[in-house]
Amino acid sequence: MKALTYHGPGRRTWDEVPDPVVRDPEDAVVRVDAVTICGTDLHILGGDVPEVTEGRVLGHEAVGTVVETGSAVRTIAVGDRVLVSCISACGRCGYCRRGTYGQCTGGGGWILGHLIDGTQAEYVRTPFADSSLHRLPDGVDDETALMFADILPTAYEVGVLNGRVGPGDTVAIVGAGPIGLAAIATARLYSPRRIVAVDLVAGRLAAAERAGADEVLRADDGAEQAVRALSPDGLGVDVAIEAVGVPDTFELCTRLVRPGGRVANVGVHGRPAVLHLEELWIRNVTVTTGLVDTRTTPLLLDLLAAGRLAAGGLVTHRFALDQMPEAYDVFADAAGTGALKVALFRP
């Protein structure tokens, strides 16, 4: 089969690799029908994730059809149309029993495209199929479903839930890329008073308005004061969600929150950011970080199927699966191409 493989910082190929096979009784092999590229894949190519080894098939998000299952798989069958979650869960370790699947110590967690071969291929082996694949509701198309492999649960769990967004809150979302847009959509489930999106790119701010942001602001020298002015008393926002992964945006979030506020960091950072504890400690500010657990994926899919959660508008560029190198080029040059999320489909 063809797959996108990593060969060191800045080097990738789309070439023939061996077909995946069932190696464990709990495995399934899935034919990839739709797949996407994540900002984390760009971090890997930048050399920020040294655990990824030479020849690794990248990718951790896909929609597909089950073509083979191991003898111990009980709830997933050949022919099922499934969402391949970015997180694999053994279902038995202490973390999994608490629903903290991202920290699985039984062989799961973020392993696809990281510690084992991933989804940017024609087929993928998925460990722990019963707890790591999700049957898709009828009527949900592949492109929309693809956003629930990582983007929606990450924004919801690491941003909205960790940030404890509640009714009447003022929420600032710094970064209006795919994660930021998904954070807007899922924050709206909790009836905040106002959602403010901050970004450098006009096209992304326009997308934030379409996603439901009440205010959009360009990230310039006046952004901090402008955000504060939009809070009821000028003291700052209740929740600031960092959805970029660079030091400047994280540090901006810590300045935007009011005393007693919460900073929920979602972005993947490749460089150190300064944590100004000398200023934050006296303001009772809470800072959270996290890897998604995907424990809310079934809930989010149910909300989608019921028409209570809008998840469209994130994909801006579409390709055939064998156009993977071109899709990477477009996604990596988001400033020039306007790409938010790219999707690739089996012909």
Automatic annotation (TrEMBL):
SUPFAM superfamilies: GroES-like, NAD(P)-binding Rossmann-fold domains. Its cofactor is Zn(2+). One of its GO terms (molecular function) is zinc ion binding. Coiled coil: none annotated. Keywords: Metal-binding, Oxidoreductase, Zinc. PANTHER family: NADP-DEPENDENT ISOPROPANOL DEHYDROGENASE (PTHR42813:SF4), ZINC-TYPE ALCOHOL DEHYDROGENASE-LIKE (PTHR42813). This is Alcohol dehydrogenase. It comes from Kitasatospora griseola.
